[in-house]
């Protein structure tokens, strides 16, 4: 009887199996979204894809979802802002290509340098569909998460304060 119990023990106490593969939905976002600024944001195939929630250490966070085929950013700056020491990334230029998705709590900028607008995940208005020839200047965003097939930078550097 003892050999039968010992043989059954490993399967009786084993944790349940989990399916391998990617989790559904976007990856987890930071607790406090970093601030991104850029002097020029030139998207290609820009479209508002809706509002969703992303997971954070403090629970779900409501975000705008923007999709683009590609985007060029000039004078790119990303700064953490969680109340501790600040860290950042900076680049003369940043190119996003492929399947690009931006998850933003807040997004503001000036369309063609003329009409300045702010969009937020807490209510409308939602960003319009932007024709491919339109660009935005003086962009500032609370960037929760970005996914992109390809990211190319020029002059990338790490900053700390």
Question: Can you tell me about this structure?
Answer:
The protein has 161 residues and is mainly beta. Helix content is 7%, strand content 55%. It has one helix at residues 2-13, and strands at residues 35-44, 47-54, 61-79, 87-111, 115-120, 136-147, 150-154, 157-160. Strands 1, 2, 3, 4, 5, 6, 7 and 8 form an 8-stranded antiparallel sheet that branches. The longest helix is centred in the first third of the chain and has 12 residues, at 2-13. It is globular. The relative contact order is 0.25.
Main β sheet profile: 8 strands, antiparallel
Specify Rg, calculated over alpha carbons: 21 Å
**Total number of helices:** 1
Uncertain segments are: 1-22
Helix content: under 10%
Please tally the β strands and state the result. Answer: 8
Distance between the termini: 67 Å
How are helices and strands ordered from N to C?
HEEEEEEEE
Mean pLDDT: 78
Beta-strand level of the residues, as a percent range? over 45%
